Amino acid sequence: MLDGKKILYSGMQATGTLTLGNYLGALKNWVNMSEEYECLYGVMDLHSLTLRQEPAEFRKNARSLYALYVAAGLDPEKNCIYYQSHVSAHAELGWLLNCFPYMGELQRMTQYKDKAAKHAENINAGLFTYPVLMAADILLYQTDVVPVGVDQKQHLEITRDIAQRFNGIFGEVFTVPEAYIGKIGAKIMSLQEPERKMSKSDENANATIYLLDDRDTIIRKFKRAVTDSESVICYREDKPGISNLMDIYGAVTGRSKEEIEREFEGQGYGSFKLAVGETVADELEPLQKRYAELIADKSYIDRVIKANDEKAAYYAGKTLRKAQKKLGLTERIR
Ligand code: ATP
Ligand code: LTN
User: Fold this and answer.
1) What average pLDDT score do residues 122-127 get?
2) Per DSSP, which regions of the chain are E strands?
């Protein structure tokens, strides 16, 4: 516990451009929770290396991610927003923790199975031990709560298992964290194949709303969203397209399914899709303006990155040293 508040930790990979799924499943919740907790948010650039990155573009994406966190409403002077790769304790604790989970446990991870199937030409060891580095991220800061989309639930469970296994052998070193998964928006689906998750890496650009898409593009993508042949707006399992649009609308406006059904009773899909498109465009407009200002203000971003890197390194170093000592590694002579 820092300053009497509980600790919140989360992050995203610094790959590609953020989507509406990342925003509604994670980022928006981070902003809503940021007052109540002492918060740390990482730009997870080490995790991004499990897929090949083009160096110049990768560096730009990482910076863009940092600016998007801030543009979405996270204050870098109140919250610790930093680069994972700037705090070497992540890689160090990652190694120590690698010696705790069993191969079979990591083999069960669905993200690993999905990514291995998608990138059969590059199933590297980093892809396999990805969840262990994620556990290190979280455990370094004695985190109480980790807000993520539902796809990360399994990684949180293995983080808890690793923490409990370590604590069970060596005494209380790590706080055992809880996942926080929002009630709405935890799984935004593709606009073109609503049975699949909306993803940054989708090849069909119409399937995904990017946070930096302009208003016309957003409205056009919603107009083209795949739905069904009925024309009633209601939330049902056999209507994944409409249910997804209702989730999106509900996550942005805070309205319940029943309220949305009532609001659009008797109206066709065309006007519903337009309303969702306009609502999303309105929600993203201030974020986009702020983003453009931030990206142009190099010295401000550089200053907050530096201050926060140092702050993160300080807290992480404490936990790392505690873990090293408990494991019996010889302490450095100072
Ligand atoms: P990719 O799809 O390319 O693997 P990603 O979009 O899942 O990447 P991550 O960095 O892995 O991006 O995820 C960042 C955060 O956004 C995580 O908390 C994740 O749970 C959440 N998230 C990602 N996609 C969605 C989605 N479609 N709906 C809700 N939350 C999501
Ligand atoms: N695996 C996460 C990104 C991530 C993360 C973390 C999230 C890396 N380390 C620590 C929360 C806490 C993902 O969203 N794909």
Assistant:
1) 96
2) 7-13, 38-44, 80-83, 145-147, 178-180
**Amino acid 183: pLDDT:** 82
Residues 6 or more apart in contact with residue 117 via CB below 8 angstroms: none
Best residue for ligand 2 mutational test, from 10, 111, 140 (most atoms within 8 Å of Cβ):
10
Per-residue pLDDT at 112 exceeds 60: yes
pLDDT digits (tens, 9 = 90+) for 37-50: 999 999 999 999 99
Distance 66 CA to ligand 2 centre (A): 15
pLDDT of residue 3: 65
User: In this structure, what token pair is assigned to residue 184?
Assistant: 């709405």
Which residue carries 């994670």 as its tokens? 26
Q: Which residues surround ligand 2 with Cβ inside 6 Å?
A: 9-13, 44, 47, 134, 137-138, 146, 148, 152, 155
Q: Which sequence spans correspond to the domains of the chain? A: 6-185+298-327, 205-293
Pick 205-293's CATH classification: 1.20.1050.10, 1.10.10.10, 3.90.1180.10, 1.10.240.10: 1.10.240.10
209 pLDDT higher than 70: yes
In the sheet with 7-13, reading across from the earlier edge strand, the strands are: 80-83, 38-44, 7-13, 145-147, 178-180
Instruction: Specify whether domain 6-185+298-327 bears CATH 3.90.1210.10.
Output: no
6-185+298-327 and 205-293 share one fold: no
pTM of the predicted protein model: 0.94
